[in-house]
Design brief:
The chain is α+β, with helices and mostly antiparallel strands. The protein is 40% helix and 20% strand. The longest helix has 27 residues.
Length: 469
């Protein structure tokens, strides 16, 4: 056998995310506040990026026993670092169009299997969003969004003081810990409902993944091979402070507000295109979740330890969530979507469905192999209408090689859904990134409906009567 400097077996998830049926990528976008100076590119490439993980300088190979392994290879910078050339001395609006066309193209392209599965695209032209943009294209076989964003963050420092670590928004106290403080007998009904809900949700998820498709609708084309069709990327920025204010006014969580607004925006879009059918259509959101029980990112060194609480790799599951239907009362009071989101999220959070789904995928892998799991995941994505995922970003502004980072967002490709929604926080901004099927979704109208939904929910929350304390 050849000399394999690094020959870790490819993880099961690494194999089923890199099959003919399911070839998925995570894209991270880093916006710079100043024009990009690429004089340090080679230093960052060799001394910062490649050392993050041996997989960044390895390819998948099959050994003598037929097992897939990561094999160390020589990495040539020119094959992975792309610097496109646009026309010179044009306006930011002009470069917006070039940027969008370029991004739409690289979202569709697959990286060669005989080279490490990643690329970095350096956009040195100013758009209306930033003076320059770095695009990290990372194959899902290398790891999940948590892993890959964690790797990206390890290349950056706090802009105010590089010696200090980045910090992340705190999460709510673990509800199970809160419930543990209650009396034993008071916990019994809650535990019984949790088990019942978990079994019910798990059964519904299995049926949705394998047999029951969502209706074709303005948000789901149901066409074959959507993952190979062109798509459009659209961004919306919201004030995180404002969303927190809405959260406080309503006594709910940030996730409740965001999810409710997204579901309301989806229904407004369907109403605009087909009001009668749009109200009756059965549509499902597929929420991708990390199964790591951890509140913030660990360092790369921690992820790589054998017994890490949050190991490198893919540790994800999914939840099916019915998108509430639009009624006359919810049109007049959009806060109903937030209340419904709160109810759904609370129920899902208190169930074991995510872990049952993870167990099912592991069982299917052992019994039928990684191609069967890839087919299962593909079918799950195909049968739903919208895929939603979210990641948390740091509280403090960051910098990469003295380039202040103005914005940070991500998206994913490879699935057959017509709409993919990725949500990420950074400093005091919440970025909602819409990846939509070109020619089927009216991306401008869809974005407008999302903005209108957030504004309507904000207005309704601010007009709520204050309780007298």
């Amino acid at each position: 056998m050849e000399n394999l400097e690094f020959s870790e077996p490819v993880s099961p998830s690494g194999r089923y995310f890199n099959t003919p049926l399911l070839c998925a990528y995570v894209f991270g976008f880093l916006e710079s506040e100043i024009p990009i100076d690429d004089s340090q590119t080679m230093h960052l490439f060799k001394d910062v990026f490649l050392p993050i993980n041996p997989r960044f300088s390895s390819i998948m190979v099959r050994d003598e026993d037929g097992e897939m392994r990561w094999k160390k290879v020589e990495v040539k910078a020119e094959e992975h670092i792309k610097v496109p050339i646009f026309p010179k001395n044009e306006s930011s609006q002009f470069y917006d169009e070039y940027f969008d066309e370029y991004v739409s193209r690289i979202l569709m392209e697959k990286t060669p299997q005989d080279k490490p599965l990643w690329e970095v695209h350096v956009i040195k032209y100013p758009t209306t969003s930033a003076k320059g943009t770095l695009i990290f294209k990372l194959h899902h076989a290398l790891g999940d969004g948590y892993t890959l964003v964690g790797a990206l963050l390890s290349c950056l420092q706090r802009a105010d003081d590089p010696s200090l670590p980045l910090t992340f928004p705190s999460r709510r106290p673990n509800e199970s810990a809160v419930r543990a403080k209650k009396g034993f007998f008071r916990r019994i009904p809650s535990a019984v409902f949790s088990v019942f809900n978990s079994i019910s949700d798990f059964g519904w998820s299995v049926v949705k993944s394998s047999m029951v498709e969502d209706d074709k609708s303005p948000i789901r084309s149901g066409e074959e091979g959507v993952e190979n069709q062109p798509c459009v990327l659209t961004n919306i920025s919201f004030s995180l402070d404002h969303i927190k204010k809405i959260k406080s006014m309503l006594g709910v969580t940030l996730n409740d507000v965001i999810t409710g607004a997204i579901f309301y925006g989806i229904r407004l879009y369907m109403e605009e295109l087909n009001s009668e059918k749009g109200r009756r259509t059965k549509s499902t959101g597929l929420v991708l979740l990390s199964t790591r029980n951890i509140g913030s990112y660990q360092s790369i060194q921690e992820m790589m330890k054998p017994n890490s609480r949050s190991p490198w790799g893919n540790h994800i599951a999914f939840l099916h969530v019915s998108i509430p239907k639009l009624t006359q009362s919810s049109l007049s009071n959009p806060l109903q979507f937030v209340w419904k989101a709160q109810k759904i999220i609370k129920r899902k959070r208190n169930s074991f469905t995510v872990f049952l789904i993870e167990w099912l995928l592991d069982l299917e892998l052992k019994l039928r192999g990684h191609e069967a799991v890839a087919k299962h995941i593909y079918g799950t994505l195909k049968n739903a209408s919208v895929v939603i995922s979210n990641l948390i970003g740091p509280v403090e502004p960051m910098a990469l090689a003295n380039h202040p980072c103005k914005g940070l967002y991500f998206t994913m490709t490879g699935g057959p859904e017509s709409i993919n929604i990725a949500i990420m926080s950074y400093t005091r901004t919440l970025r909602v990134t819409l990846k939509t099927q070109k020619g089927f979704i009216d991306e401008k109208l869809f974005k407008a409906c999302m903005v209108n939904a957030f504004e309507a929910i904000s207005k309704a929350a601010m007009e709520m009567p204050r309780s007298k304390g």
